[in-house]
Amino acid sequence: MKFNLLKVLGASAVLSFTAAGAVWSTECIAPANPGGGWDFTCRQVGKILFDIHQVDAPVQVTNMAGAGGGLAFSTVVHERNTDADLIVAASSATTTRLAQKAYGDATADQVRFVGAIGADPGVIVVAQDSPFKTLTDMVDAIKADPSSVAFAGGSAAGGFDHMKPLQILKAAGFNDITAVKYIGVDGGADAITQTVGGFTQAMTGDMSEIVGFLKSGEVRALAVLSEERVPGFEDIPTAKEQGYDVVAVNWRGFYVPGGITDTEFNSWADKIRAVADSDEWKEAMAANGLAPFTKVGADFQTWIDQVIAQTAELSREIGVIQ
Question: Does residue 322 sit within a domain?
Answer without folding.
Answer: no
